[in-house]
Automatic annotation (TrEMBL), chains A, B:
Residues of the signal peptide: none
Name of the featured protein: ROK family protein
Residue ranges, annotated region (Disordered): 1-22
InterPro entries for this protein: ATPase_NBD (IPR043129), HTH_MarR-typ (IPR000835), ROK (IPR000600), WH-like_DNA-bd_sf (IPR036388), WH_DNA-bd_sf (IPR036390)
Span of domain HTH marR-type: 30-81
Family per similarity comment: Belongs to the ROK (NagC/XylR) family.
Amino acid sequence: MTAPLHEAHPSSPGRRLPDTQQGMRRRNLARVMHTVSAEGPLSRAAVASRIGLTRAAVSTLVDELIRSGLLEELGPERPGRVGRPGSALAVSGRGPAGIGAEIGVDHLAVSAVDLRGGVRARAVRHGTNRGRAPGPVLTELTALVERVVAEAEREGLWPAGLAVAVPGLVARDARTVVRAPNLDWHHVDLGTLLPAGLPLTVDNEANFGSLAELWLGDSTPRDFLHVSAEIGIGGAVVVDGRLLRGTHGFAGELGHVPVRPEGPECACGGRGCLEQYAGEEAVLRAAGLTPGEDRVDMLAERAAQGDKDVCRALHDAGTALGVALTGAVNLLDPEAVVLGGALAALAPWLLPSLERELARRTAGPPCAVTVSRLGSEGPLLGAAHSVVRAVLDDPAAIAERG
Amino acid sequence: MTAPLHEAHPSSPGRRLPDTQQGMRRRNLARVMHTVSAEGPLSRAAVASRIGLTRAAVSTLVDELIRSGLLEELGPERPGRVGRPGSALAVSGRGPAGIGAEIGVDHLAVSAVDLRGGVRARAVRHGTNRGRAPGPVLTELTALVERVVAEAEREGLWPAGLAVAVPGLVARDARTVVRAPNLDWHHVDLGTLLPAGLPLTVDNEANFGSLAELWLGDSTPRDFLHVSAEIGIGGAVVVDGRLLRGTHGFAGELGHVPVRPEGPECACGGRGCLEQYAGEEAVLRAAGLTPGEDRVDMLAERAAQGDKDVCRALHDAGTALGVALTGAVNLLDPEAVVLGGALAALAPWLLPSLERELARRTAGPPCAVTVSRLGSEGPLLGAAHSVVRAVLDDPAAIAERG
């Protein structure tokens, strides 16, 4: 079993390299990259003081990173500072880029993100994928990937890897979609159906959404529970800055937590699962509406107009979320619950009942519930950034590939 | 926030020491200790080959550990082996010992465990602590600790630390009992009430029980959910060989997961919590029995005799456990659920309904449910061993103290 992503925070390396001089060098290269990435532009002296190595040691590491095209020198720092002016270092805006892709129930999307976190190319195709065979969908996705890669290459970037977000459970091989009920895909190995030559990572959309929140969110804590919804309800657990994956890679399945043990039957085989009360289709049904495209926009619009049925349906969904989250909060004691994906857009109408339920059921200090700023952009951003983070986490690997 | 325990598996250091030569030396001392502890007696050459260092490097580390009294040489190995006979190394049976203590609702217990894991002294006092003030209880516990320490000292051991298991929530300072409802203790700082001079760690009994399971259980996986019951229901989550603590140190609270959202009111402020269906008192009530001492033995005895009311009450408790565990298994995707504490003794009558509920509600591969061999001994063993593990995890700290 391998951890497919380098999801660790800089201060807690996710993958332990061996305790040798060589391992130490690799880890120190990563510390330089993360420091410049988080705080740059910085002089060599500033990097040295921040990571607690000598200036000479840092210079050797920096030279190696410049040779690999991962760092660049911006030229002498402005005069007026104390001491001899050093050349400021910045993460390269050329060189490796992360290619993120998303297979949604209603769309496909691809984007290229450079090492500085800038989105440099993007392509989207709307249209339902529900019930379509994997082959044609992945052929379309491949075309979008090729278009985005070509655009990125014109800007001096090269793709360091491809990460694909899917609305389903992914095996720990980080390639195989075990079950994506809303696509009706079962045991599909994406590795054989996507462009060869690019290192590939496939993961659940909720996992990528939570990583985006961790990396890009506004003061996201290092221990949180991420809850999102598209058609289904997704969850992801981040502990000490790392995504909890579980034995089979299935951790975070919040949608099938029993809310009412004798409630309506669920496609999963259980009864009264959260998805039966707070999934998009359940909410639409409860509001007397017909599922279609742009469901979330429609719900948010009607709720904003004060549509009683929609508001009541969202209130009840919030209550169900509160019951399911009580169990999760009791079990994990996270610093916050973050509502992402479609739940972010619907938060104004979900939060009151959700928070009330959570507060009255948890004896301990109340757990903060916050709303993601990234919303439904989270999974695609998380996918592209996961490739970028892998480069920052082990820059030596790029040098070896180059 | 500090992690009060060195709960890590040898291969994944829980506390990251800095990436310096000095940090590397400390980690390598720990690797030698863990290797000899797990596989000894071993020659220096065997240790070197197992941890991938040169024989000279290992000899330096071993000499330091012998000087600190943590390793001992057993004399030349038996002839008949290939090569020049080396002296076999073993973990010392003298030197530091872990002192574990347990504050139960109905008893106090203390034991001393040497670095080899042998229980070398033990003292127990029966009698209820429910509703007693912390002062007198801790005075009695101190007397037991002193008796056990004196006995250990007569055998050439010295106490490296004291770890106390309590039936309640403990703050992340690893000293303060925030809430122990079945003792009726609130915000009690045990640090001021226990013998000074001994490094102290206080933790929830379910946490220590799960660590005992991890360290001493029969092929316990590295990802599991531990569920135990005394008066309340305790839970603990172990991920990748490490105990998940949560933001406030309260993770693992399975007893207040809502099983039936509109069920009976619970002391926690919620409704229909698991404890209302599967806690010892709930089971006794459902079986028409009066709570008293030796409740678990009585339940097990009557169930074994085929008492219909008791069997039905345990069957229903198993169902409630199955519902609550479905949510937890969906969220964490553990390799196994381990029933510990009193649940181990009652497992034959809980398991059928528990497993049925779990199987019908979880869509993924069924999660194994196993029964702890340690049963209600778990928390005390886990406490004493946590001190021993801290010595193995950072033997240099002992040398510095000595």
